[in-house]
Structures are given as C-alpha cells and as structure tokens.
Amino acid sequence: MSLQIENQQLQTVHIVPLTAFDQNDQINAEVQSAHTAKLYEAGMRVFLPGAGTSEFHSLLPEEIIELVKITREVAGPDALIFAPIGYQVGVACQTAIDSMKAGATGIMFMPFAHPYMSDRGAEEYYLSVMDAADCPTLYYKKSDIPSDSLLLKLAADKRSIGVKYSVNQMHQFRTTVNADQDGLEWICGSAERFAPYYMLAGSGGFTSGAGNLCPHLSLAMHAAFASGEFERGMQIQQLILPIEDYRARAGDSFNISMLKYAITLTGVDFGPPRPPQRTLTAEQEKEIRQLMEPILEAEEEFAQQKSPV
C-alpha cells in the first residue's frame, strides 16, 4: 500500500451520493455523473458511492464498481473515494480489488448483515479483505460488532485510517477516541443531526445524505464547527434538520425515499428507490415539498455567497 492519507483530508463532509436509476432500473450514468460533478463543484472531496444512502444493500458488486468509476472520472484525482464492502468474504475481496482498479482510494467496511457475529469473526473477515486489496481502510460501526476494543486493536494496522462511528453514545465515543494511540480519524457516521456533538467529542468530520440536496449548507455547517463558530454551526444545522428529522421517521425507513423524492424538486430524476425501500404517499410527498422550499432557498443563498463576484 503506497498511498498515504493525512487525517486532515478526512476532516470534512463525507458525502454518500444518491444512486441514479433509469427507466430500466439500470444505473443512469449521465445523471450520476452530473450529480457528482455538482457535489464536487460545491466543495465535496470525500465520496462514499454505493454506501448506505446509495442503496448498498440493493446494488450488485458490479454496480458498486461502476459508481466508483463514475465518481473518479468526474471528481478527479484529488477526491477521496471509498468503496463500500460487505456480504460474503469472497465477494467482498473481489469487490475491493475491482474497486481499487476502478479508481477507489480505499474501502469502507459496511455494517455486518450476517447473524451470529463476534469480534473474532469480524477481525478475520476484515483482515482477509484487507490482505486481498491492501489499501486504506475505513470501518463502519453501527452496532456492538465491531467492538471499540477491536477497532482500537485494528488501529495499529497501517492500512486502517478511520472509523465511521454511528452508535450515538457520546461518552462511549469520547472514551474510545481518547484511548486511540495510533491516530485513527474518528468520523461521525450519523450525519448532520449528531455531527455537532461528535465534533465536540473528537470527530473531525461527518457523513451526509442531506448534502445531496444542500451541499453548500452541509459544508458550511462543518466549516463553522471546525473553526469554533458553534452558534453559527447550530444555526445552519437548524436549516438542515427538517431533512434529517423526516428521514429518521419510522425507524429511519424514510432515509432514502425522502431524498430520492426531494431531489426531483431540483429538476433531476434519480428514479425510485429499489425495493424494499418504502414508497411515499401523496401526502408525504406534499410534506416534503413544503419542508424543502426554505432549505432550497437557503442552499441557493449559500451557493451564491461562495461564488466569486
């Protein structure tokens, strides 16, 4: 593994781009490319194509690789791109290898979908894939496995660069960050709703799905907290929260469906989410239209502020 990533490069917003499907339920490369270009132009530099909000669990390995390739072609050489990895270990190894060939910077292990999990099994799985791909590696923690102890053990591996932490127990998170002697980057994996509290506890960045709709707002929120402007950061968070609160309804089951409908309000059709994601009712679509109106107005204002006069 020759590529070295500095922690500072990860201390930003990690965007999980929506996946565009055409009328035949194939990846719409034209729409995907244009959307990625828009995110890059707004300032996004860390991409997680094919991950959770990108409908990871409904994507084929070759579709993940295609999304990585599109992202690299559009975002350019300075973007960090982490391919999501999961499922059977053989599939995981090959997807990791092929993603690196397609232009990924590294891989991110998704939360396990397997039953009967243990730290020992998780560690063996991780190392099998890492040995196959030999690349910068992120871990996504969303449950008890991997444990904090295992993550701290894996931190000593030179290929380990960070953890996407999404358990939302702040004292536990802070204690683990303080125990890290190897310098992993600890990233808020729970988006804008929890990002301020993670950043106070030691996170340098956060993942975002809302950034598909309002990338300038998400980046401005991060910049405010990173520079210690907490009041301004919370004001910007307040603008974004209606998106996050809606996505969190009914056990987070609106996570993808809400974003996929909301992005149509910007004039772009990404197609419906794949089953088993929920479909929206006419009343829910009306609610989303209403809540998005002030957010899109604010996004335009922030975009104009960033543009050179």
UniProtKB/TrEMBL annotation:
The active site is at 140 (proton donor/acceptor), 164 (schiff-base intermediate with substrate). Its EC number is 4.2.1.41. GO terms for molecular function: 4-hydroxy-tetrahydrodipicolinate synthase activity; 5-dehydro-4-deoxyglucarate dehydratase activity. Coiled coil: none annotated. Transmembrane segments: none annotated. Keywords: Lyase. This is Putative 5-dehydro-4-deoxyglucarate dehydratase. It comes from Gimesia aquarii.
